[in-house]
Write a structure and sequence with these properties.
With 211 residues, the chain is α/β, with parallel strands linked by helices. It is built from 10 helices and 7 strands. The structure holds adenosine-5'-triphosphate.
């Protein structure tokens, strides 16, 4: 049963949780920005994970214990070079780092959802929602889809430090587009041949009418 707010308006104990996923450069962040203009909040799981690695005391201690205190610089910032070298090509170490980070992000996300209890629905953006299995905790998932060629072009224009080979390697570690399409509940086609705003407005109307 919905809770009553102080001014007697019913509020949701938990809003509907909508995942936004898609390969690198598919346009997830852009789509979330447009939903944001409509007043829908989005939790960017990948960015939050990076922030929590320096701000969540429990996680910081766990990372230091597992990888050594050199994982951080004197100012408490992440020593990315050191940590990347520690996990680079060592799959078990990368798994270990993810196993430390994911539960802390999950707690942070839960708190964020509760802080947005008054919303009809909220978005959780993550590149690897299907790969990590965390999509199972959400009510529904939107895939932002774009061809590999378009995604590579976008990422190279956005991230000047990356080479084509870097981007292709990241794509190789993500689920193939067809598999993601089969798992998604909704698809926003972002190949620059269809307008994305009408697709987003259509979903916005649908989610608002569901809750
Ligand atoms: P990542 O997985 O790397 O975080 P992402 O899926 O969040 O990527 P965005 O950052 O939203 O992707 O988009 C990648 C780049 O492509 C950005 O510079 C964005 O502005 C641009 N872009 C995305 N969609 C479009 C579009 N329809 N038209 C023009 N530019 C676009």
């Amino acid at each position: 049963m919905p809770l009553e707010s102080p001014n007697s308006q019913p509020i949701n104990a938990k809003p509907m949780q909508v995942g936004i996923t898609g390969g690198i450069g598919s346009g997830k962040s852009l789509v979330c920005k447009i939903f944001g203009i409509l007043g829908v909040p989005a939790y960017d799981a990948d960015s939050r994970a990076k922030i929590l690695m320096t701000t969540d005391g429990i996680l910081v201690e766990q990372i230091k214990k597992e990888f050594g205190s050199l994982s951080y610089d004197g100012a408490g910032g992440l020593n990315r070079e050191f940590l990347s070298a520690a996990v680079f090509t060592k799959e078990d170490k990368l798994k270990k780092l993810n196993a430390l980070v994911h539960p802390r992000v999950a707690i942070d996300y839960e708190q964020w959802v509760h802080a947005h209890a008054g919303c009809n629905y909220v978005l959780k953006e993550a590149a690897l929602l299907f790969e990590s299995g965390s999509y199972k905790m959400l009510d529904t998932v939107i895939l932002v889809s774009a061809s590999k060629g378009v995604r590579i072009r976008r990422v190279l224009a956005r991230d000047t430090h990356r080479t084509k080979a870097d981007v292709e390697k990241i794509i190789q570690n993500q689920l193939p587009e067809e598999e993601k399409e089969a798992k998604a509940n909704f698809i926003i086609r972002n190949n620059e041949s269809e307008l994305i705003v009408p697709q987003i407005l259509n979903l916005h109307e649908r989610f608002n009418s569901m809750n």
